[in-house]
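#struct-pred

JT: dropping the chains for the assembly here, can someone run the whole complex?
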Amino acid sequence: MRPRPRWQKLLRDVAMERGRVMLMTAAITVSLIGVGAVLGAYGILTRELPANYLGTRPASAALEIAGGVDRALVDEVRRHPGIAEAEAGDIVLARAQVGEDWVPLLLFVIDDFGDLRLNRFTAENGAWPPPDGTMLMERSAGPVLKAAMGQSLRVKTPHASPRSVPIVVPIVGIVHDPGLAPAWQEREGYGYITRATLTLLGEPATLGELRVTVSDHPFELGAIEAQVNQLSRWLADKGKTVIEARIPPPGKHPHQNQLVGVLFLMIAFSVMALGLSAILVATSIASIMGRQAREIGVMKAIGARTGQIATLYAAFVLALGSVSVLIALPVGVAVARALALMSAKMLNFTIASPAVPGWVFAVQAVAGLVVPLAFAALPIIRSSRITVREAMDQHGVDSAGPGKERPSAAVLSRFLSAWTNRVSRTLILVVRNTFRRRVRLVLTLGLLSAGGAMFMTALNVSHGWERIVDRVYENRAYDVEIRLNAPTTVVETLRTVAGVGHVEAWGFKRTALWRAGQVDIVRTYPDGSHGSLTLVGPPIGTQLVHFPLLAGRWLEAGDSDAVVLNHMVLSQLPGTKVGDEISLSVDGRPTQWRVVGIVEEVGAAGVAYVTDQAFLRATGSAGRVGMLRIVTTATTPEARTDVIRAIERALATGEGSVEAVIPLAVLRTAMGDHVSVLINMLLAMAALMVTVGMLGLASTMGSNVLERTREIGIMKTLGATPGRIARLIVGEALLIGSMSWLLAVALALPLTGLVGQTVGRLAFRVRLPLIVDVHAVLGWLVLVAAFAALATALPARRASRLTVWGALGRV
Amino acid sequence: MSKNNDGVQLIQLRDVTKVYPGAGGGFTALGGINLCLSAGELTAIVGKSGSGKSTLANLITGIDRPTTGEVLVGGTAVHALDESRLATWRGRHVGVVFQFFQLLPALTVAENVMLPMDLCGTYAASAARARARDLLARVGIAEQADKLPAALSGGQQQRAAIARALANDPALVVADEPTGNLDSRTAESILDLLRALARAGKTVVVVTHERDALRKFARVVSLVDGRVAEQTHATPALLGEVRL
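RK: done, full complex below.
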């Protein structure tokens, strides 16, 4: 059965407008793919990341017990009210030799590999459990340790003397631990050993951590803290002192908030792209209906009602949306899966099922059908309501009415008239033509400038990120930080090392906020870095750090109870300001401090700075040093590495133990690795919006040329050459592109600020500096000009080839 | 609206004026028009360019609205209908023929004729197709039914437009310069077609500026500067016999 005539018309209109239909479909499809990809990835990741993390059965808290935990105590704790599960374990920060360098190695000591109940991990390859004297390696640690299964690592542990020979530990298996941030991102290795192996490495055989999960409200921080305090008191009654309780954010992977934040940002941009493509559809439909005004008038003259006309064109948009949805659904799924896999790799978790949730398809389908229709509704209704007479009088030029001139057009005319004798006629025509369809011009400018603004924003934010990462160098004037426990004589020893320019001994001790009558609680994950709090005592007058002051002042000689907090502490002590008193726990004792300043310290966890004298008084660590910060005389990275290796060798001949040697370059690289993917995602979003913007420009220029076919014919009769016609068309596109560039630059500034703030806060809790990347600004100008020329090449060619007869013969 | 009621006044315009807004107080296209046209009458509206003849035709078809006054067609107060009712009324009761044919280029000739039946829901699809072919046969272009308008000559397109105007069997056919874009021979045949419609009982109003053709009309309304300057009635002998 053949469709009724009005639907025949619709089908043939689609065929006749195939170029424009393809542009509109492409725009909706591209943006729908973006929406589907981001929403799909969101659906997969927010399902799989918690499933992976919770699948490890993460401990609600890890209690560090003086004297260690035995199995009998663990059994008792398991029966304790409010405790769902308990297990003993330990984490040792060791070091592994990689080539000539030493890198941090977190060794997780497992009491019973056959009965792993909390913070579980799974075997991927090799032995399980590892025989005594061997270790398993986390799968993401290979690139950091430059090792693989079957190879061995030379390992030193904290209690081993620097002089002792490193123990060779074979890697006999690979495991996956989704509870940890990827090793390559943290620049440290993860190993898993038995208690016997720990002894072989020279550490005490005791397991210092009691890990528990609570049974009531296991995902509520308050409930966990209350249970931990209650358990600590119970343990104290049994003669067991809890040194510290580590409670990570309940049920959340260390990078979960950042991931969700980034995904929300991407969702916002993809929705924006969809909005832009819907605007493109709206402008195209307005253009098509404008050209078909006479047909609409004729249909009305022979009995069509406004509703019938509107339904016809609404069906046109719905048909476009349907085709876009059909294409975008499978492609969106594929991209969503790729995006999810990439994110999973970045966060070191396994996607059990790549299935995209059903609601994503529903949202994508509804978005593809409803959003373009909603945007096109206004032009459709407006054009459908045209009367027969208005339709017959249509001349295709945006005007205010007979005998009238829009005020803006009048201003433009006067301006151009004033320049008539000074600029070429072609240029004047270009400018006048550009402003003839003002609504369309505004929408096209909106499309292009939004795309350009996103492009510049992505690059600006990327540079803002680089700038903030550069602060690692700007705010720190040393080359290497060494965390150790050694006599202060080590300072003199290191000063004699060739290439060492300056050595400072700093106090360094892990601390926690003191809560009267409660156990010390820190908000760290098992890796001990995310969310930690450290008390640091720099020498007065040190020139090795220059952190920007957010409030108050830096430490001064004579400060006895003054503390300067870095901004990361504020997440644990929200609302703290200069002048406040805070209590920090040092070895289980309260110490009182007065906040005199708050500094911005990018690239660190929470740090409370006190003077070295105050540090010694509070910790009683006279004669020992916890941290060294060393300046080398080296001028190249290679030379600096050589000096650091020489320092390592010197330390190996001394007393005490080295916990970590952290070259500043490693810290900077780790920070860069945390965000490279994010920047790439921003650029992908920018590409999406740029594509939609360019399609918009192509569509606009196509419409403009088509509507002026008659004029072009008239111009040709008056002597306009094909070259001049082509220059007019391309010139108009270049003018639109240039105007959009100006708008994009203006729009990019607030957008950069907004995105920079979001990204910066997610990553470092600071706003990224607002940087305008000149290359991005100029690059976009070149790009938009090139695209404008490209987008108009076909319409310009078509227009220039029109014969006078062909042009004037058109109705 | 009755379809065969010769002598009954089908069209009545009472004190109709039409002023188009514009600089200097606007332009009066029609002023104080009082006109009655009978059912089954073949009427020509003539006048110079700008005399208001097309405006008058547009007021009768409801394409335009009077500034003041009343337009009654078959008892329907056309001036008082809203756009939606107007479209439905026009589709069912008025056939409109334009100077430039205005066939929809995307539809075949037959589909163009079927379109009013589709829009007004007057005939089922199969019946509409048969009726379209019948109408095209009546105007002499049955063999062109499945072609696109662009493939037809001007005369054939205007015949198709007349067939389309007859799709819903309206009592009134209004043609605005139907021969203005045609050669004299073709124009003659189109006018003969319109005369035949009147003979078949339709009320036919034709806007024209071709003085030579006026002998074919039963009544001629001359407009000068928006006013009815003269009304003449031709004798039946002059009209001759043309059958549709």
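JT: nice. Chain A has four domains: 1-58+251-394, 59-246, 436-476+668-811, 480-633. Confidence is low (pLDDT under 50) at residues 396-405 of chain A.
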